[in-house]
Structures are given as structure tokens and as C-alpha cells.
Amino acid sequence: MGHWWERNILEPGKLPLLLALTAFVVTFLVTRVITRLIRAGKGPFGNVKAGGLHIHHVVPGVVLTIVGGFGAVASDRHGAGGAVAAVLFGMGAGLVLDEFALILHLDDVYWSEEGRKSVEAVVLTAALVGLLLAGFSPFGVNDLSAAELQDRGTVIANIGVNFLFSLIALGKGKARLAILGVIVPLIAFVGAVRLARPGSLWARRFYGRRPRARAKAALRAYRHDRRWARPRRRLQDWIGGKPDSGSVRLSGRR
């Protein structure tokens, strides 16, 4: 284990990335627990206000992201300064993306249906950073043997092919499959070979003169959404909390 840690985390300089990802996930989870307690009226927590103005946690998140980002650029990634900057950046990114929907809609949609976009943004970001962390890098590792270089080159080639499948899936309007497919190759392949979603770039380009293909794609998309909408909503509710019922946007609520 120590040899793997040295070769794949310390030597390539991935420790700051690991610290940033850990801080990102922990900050998001702690923030969601606190906001759900505030919403339920439990615990010692409350909304932060200054002169009657509600200070959203995206504000300190932006500050931490700026401090951590510039600190990372100015410091050595192998030193203590880089580690501290990575933690600050991860914490700031967690706070910012937890209110991604607020930034997107320029409205307090935290507990509305639109607020689910924040959870999706956090999950997808964590997945992509996890991919970068887990991936083999042929650079920054000393004294690699020919076999190790070949193995790492094979991995990189496979990632490149898988990335191509993910781009096709994205063009077919399957953003979630495209992003998750970067991590799990089979998902990207499935998204690439199946019919495109109606209205996607692929459908407009290749289904324009094929009415049967358009109809089949629409039927497949309807059945897919009907089958997976409820499980996806349950997972989002479990992670981020259930939105307020009967409301799309509730300004000023936490």
C-alpha cells in the first residue's frame, strides 16, 4: 500500500487533488446537514444575516475558492502550502456548487425543484475529480519500467477511446451518461450506441429526414424518463433534501 501511495499519489503530485476532493465532499455534506437542520428548526444553527441581508454560503465559498486557487498557483504542490491551498479551494468549491442553482437562476431556489441542479453539479464534479485522482499518470513518476510505461499508455489510450464515446453520448443529449461514462466505460458505450434524445444535436443532424427514427427516439426517451425519474428523484432527495411541495421557487427560504 505504501509503495502504491508513493508511486501514484505523492510522486505525481496528486496529494493536493486528493485533499481538495475530500474537502469538497465533506464541506458539501456538512453544509447540507446544517441547512436541513435550519429548515427543520432544529439545532443551534441559523441563517447568517448582516443588516437584514441574508448572506448565502456561496459568498464565503467564493472567497475560499479565490484564496485557495491563488494560493495553489503561488505555492509548491509538494509542500505544506499547496496542501492548505487545496483544502481551502475544495471547501470553497463545495460551498459554491451547493448553491449552483442559485447562481444559475439568480434566485433563491435552494429548496425548489430547480435546486436539484446543485446536487447534480456536486455529484458530477466529484465523479470527474475522482477520475482524475484515480487515473494513472505516466508523468511525474520516477524510474518507470518499460512494462509500467506500456501499462500506463494502454490505460491512457483506453481513456481516450472512452472519452470519444462520451462525446458521442453528449451529442445525443445524454449528459449524465456522458459524464458518468468517463468513469465507467460501459456507460459511455451504451450512451453512444443507443438512439439520441429528441432535440439533441445528433437528432437534429441525423434524424431530420427520418421520421421513423424521430418517433422511435421520442418513444424511447418517454419510456426511459418514466422508468428512471422516480428513482433519480429519491436519490437526489436523500442527498440534498426534498424540495418544498407545490412550489417552484421560494425566495428567502433556507
What can be said about this structure in brief?
This is Integral membrane protein. Keywords: Membrane, Transmembrane, Transmembrane helix. This protein has helices spanning about 1-10, 15-40, 60-75, 80-100, 100-105, 115-135, 145-170, 175-180, 185-195, 200-205, 210-240, and strands at about 50, 55.
Task: Give an account of the 3D structure.
This protein has a two-stranded antiparallel ribbon. It is mainly alpha-helical. It has a domain at 1-134. The chain has helices at 2-10, 15-40, 58-74, 80-98, 100-105, 116-134, 146-171, 175-181, 185-193, 201-206, 211-240; strands at 49-50, 53-54.
Name the structural class.
mainly alpha
Overall geometry comes to flat
If helices are DSSP runs of H or I spanning 4 or more residues, what is the number of helices?
Answer: 11
SSE ordering:
HHEEHHHHHHHHH
Major β-sheet annotation:
2 strands, antiparallel
Distance between the termini: 44 Å
Read across the widest sheet, the strand sequence of neighbours is: 1-2
Portion of residues in beta strands equals under 5%
User: Quick check: average pLDDT?
Assistant: 81
Please bin the fraction of helical residues: 55-70%
Q: Which runs of at least 5 residues are low in confidence (pLDDT < 50)? A: 247-254
Q: How many strand units?
A: 2
Q: Mind telling me the C-alpha Rg?
A: 22 Å
